[in-house]
Amino acid sequence: DRSVKIAPSILSADFANFGAEIRAIEAQGADWVHVDVMDGHFVPNLTFGPPAVKAFRRHVTTVMDVHLMIAPVDPTIDAYAEAGADILTAHVEAGPHIHRTLQAIRGAGMKAGVALNPGTPAEAVAHLLDLADLVCVMTVNPGFGGQKFIDMTAKVRTLRAMIGDRPVHIEIDGGVDPQTAPLVVRAGADVLVAGSAVFKGGSVDAPQVYGDNIRAI
Ligand code: DX5
Ligand code: ZN
């Protein structure tokens, strides 16, 4: 289904070759580039911060979709705007004032996303849907690539109904592969993040494998 966007997560890329990896996935059909920011506090893993994201920006020609798995979020929003994020997604679990956070993300000139951990119900975003451009439904507990898909199709269906005719994307993040993708698309998702399923078996020297993997999703 070509209306569904594929957003490869560079969490599964070669960390010594981000520029080449980003160029390779875009050349092979990636719609967005998904950047997983982890702080070793909100999630038990540490990746990169604003200076690295700013460096990625020089290679991204599509949409840079930045997923913050950090707490607190608000003190960093201007830095991610300055780094060139197109979409900035914060977790509803990251603090008591997600409403303010989404306002601040839009106020800084970015599209705003709100992410839900698997244990958080759809209703947590019921009063945020006019402030968000994207709802990210986590289908793993965040922190690591390559984890097993957790079925959240009921949550996706509930969210699609709650969203109604608002222009809000439903993004799925975690364990997306050719087997799980159709389940969430049927439930109403329109953006699929995929890390290990895109990068597995490929390399910057043989990028067509990335293309085959993207097309298989
Ligand atoms: C999980 C990250 C995901 C992750 C997805 O904490 O937010 O974006 O990279 O990786 P896969 O597709 O391998 O589950
Ligand atoms: Zn992510």
TrEMBL record:
Names of the cofactor(s): Fe(2+); Mn(2+); Co(2+); a divalent metal cation
Residue sites binding substrate per the record: 9, 67, 143-146, 173-175, 195-196
Native source organism of the sequence: Roseicyclus persicicus
Annotated Pfam families: Ribul_P_3_epim (PF00834)
EC number: 5.1.3.1
Keyword Metal-binding listed: yes
Enzyme class (EC, first level): isomerase
Name this polypeptide is given: Ribulose-phosphate 3-epimerase
Name of the coding gene: rpe
